[in-house]
Protein PLASTID REDOX INSENSITIVE 2 (Prunus yedoensis var. nudiflora), 178 residues
Amino acid sequence: MSWSSVAPLLSAPSKLDSSSSFLPSSSSSVSSVRVSLSLSWRFRPTSIRYLSSPSSSLSLRKQICRAAAEYKFPDPIPEFADKETEKFRTHLLNKLSKKDLYEDSVEEVVGICTEIFSTFLHTEYGGPGTLLVVPFIDMADTLNERGLPGGQQAARAAIKWAQNHVDKDWNEWTGDEN
């Protein structure tokens, strides 16, 4: 059945035929394409079926929350944070110095990004799985608030470096092979 022959079925009929509750008897164009409607075309209320009972899904959620609360990430390592901050600063300074966008403000942009990154590493980073996007958003926001050029580009360069190096460097530092 094409959509053109369905369209009259969607309009409100003025008079319904007793043999079919969906087709008007007075319409010659509709009666010429009269179709035997199966039950699938008629409205049938549907029921919601649970794959498991609501109480078992609640139990599963409680187990997941308990497991998440019991797992503790390692505390930040200040020596690692210092070393990684220096690597970060060197890379970002080299990367941003090559761009004309920053002109005389390269040192200031790198300083702000390095300070935010260092604070994050010293207070929150506890190994793979704890690298957050928040400090990089803060970098872009701080640079933009201070009217410095290229806040988004600097934050993008910073997060790209961090994704490629921080977790790997942590594993080397701690001797974890995973």
Summary: Confidence is low (pLDDT under 50) at residues 1-52. The chain is about 60% helix and 0% strand. The two ends are 59 Å apart (CA to CA).
